């Protein structure tokens, strides 16, 4: 009987939080929702505070990763449909395929851990999508590859860090599992980018 009551309380908390939140950034909203959950469930002890700090890191990592994963798929779809160069088209399709799977794993993990994820792109990722999709032709391909190079450098760094620093072993394992895929994407875009940059 306790479970439905907890679920109702969580839903009520989320509604109150959503109504009172001033930020439009979906990643920040998710992070604030997770902080409220942590505050309401963590015992006010030294050990509880240590655990809460670790879970805050995990929730923040997963929220950012969710927005990043959505960006890879959404931008990949738009670029795959409009790309001029075969390299940009191939890379975009790879992003759709790999990150669709990764996003599903991330959502399942967040559900299991009762972590709120953003349902739309965070502000930073929305800006990247706009920067790429507002371009046309070869310029779009070149901007896409530039953003993907920077994005995957950051992803490899952040996922590697999470594979070491995450408090929850499942979050740690999720991050560690993703690192080889992200490194492969980084290697792929690094090799393809000069060809796209040289195209006219």
How would you sum up this structure, described in words?
This protein is mainly α. It has one domain: Ferritin. It contains seven helices and no strands. It is globular. It starts with a helix and ends with a helix. Mean pLDDT is 83; it is low at 1-22 and 42-51. Residues 58-191 form the DUF4142 domain. This is DUF4142 domain-containing protein. Residues 1-23 form the signal peptide. It holds the Pfam family DUF4142.
Highest CATH level, the class: Mainly Alpha
The helix content, as a percent range, equals over 70%
Give the DSSP E fraction (strand runs of 2 or more residues). Answer: under 5%
The CATH fourth-level homologous superfamily: Ferritin, core subunit, four-helix bundle
Give the overall pLDDT as a whole number.
83
Total strand segments:
0
The low-confidence parts are: 1-22, 42-51
CATH architecture: Up-down Bundle
Shape: globular
| CATH fold call | Ferritin
* Helical segment count: 7
Tally of individual domains: 1
The description of the largest β-sheet is:
none
Protein name: DUF4142 domain-containing protein
InterPro entries: DUF4142, Ferritin-like
Pfam families: DUF4142
Keywords: Signal
List the helices and strands and how they pair.
Elements (H helix, E strand, L loop, with lengths): L1 H19 L5 H16 L4 H37 L3 H28 L9 H11 L3 H29 L3 H30 L2
Helix pairs in contact: 1-2, 2-3, 3-4, 3-5, 3-6, 4-7, 5-6, 6-7
Write a short abstract of this structure.
The protein has seven helices and no strands. By secondary structure, it is mainly α. Helix content is 85%, strand content 0%.
